[in-house]
Design goal:
Rossmann fold, 40% helix, alpha/beta, six-stranded mixed sheet
């Protein structure tokens, strides 16, 4: 899979886990620290990447402004270690859901999938 890690979700641990698991990973930090949320959403869509973020503003872009998007994974109030574990579980149990226009919210003990 191809991932784009938002600035807020660009920990070395998460990046390393995804890369070691065989995924193509890019961080917004390496691309453009000044990119707006709209730019990041467009970048992920254009490059066919799953956007991983902590930022709830992407929900507004998707559901209120109806912005075009690909898969978005929002990690909610998780430590870096919990983010890695959550992504491991998400990939193990819900990888088939990581396609199309979907927003997956992952928190402690819960996964919410909205299309």
């Amino acid at each position: 899979m191809r991932f784009l890690l938002d600035v807020c979700a660009s920990s070395r641990a998460l990046y390393a886990f995804l890369e070691e698991d065989g995924h193509d990973v890019v961080s917004v930090v390496a691309r453009d620290l000044t990119a707006s949320d709209s730019d990041i959403l467009a970048m992920a869509l254009e490059e066919d990447r799953i956007l991983v973020t902590e930022d709830k503003d992407f929900g507004e872009l998707v559901f209120v402004r109806r912005a075009s998007h690909g898969p978005i994974v929002r990690l909610v109030e998780l430590t870096v270690a919990e983010q890695v574990a959550a992504m491991r579980d998400l990939l193990k149990h819900h990888s088939s859901q990581l396609t199309g226009q979907v927003l997956i919210t992952v928190g402690r003990g819960r996964v919410r999938i909205r299309r």
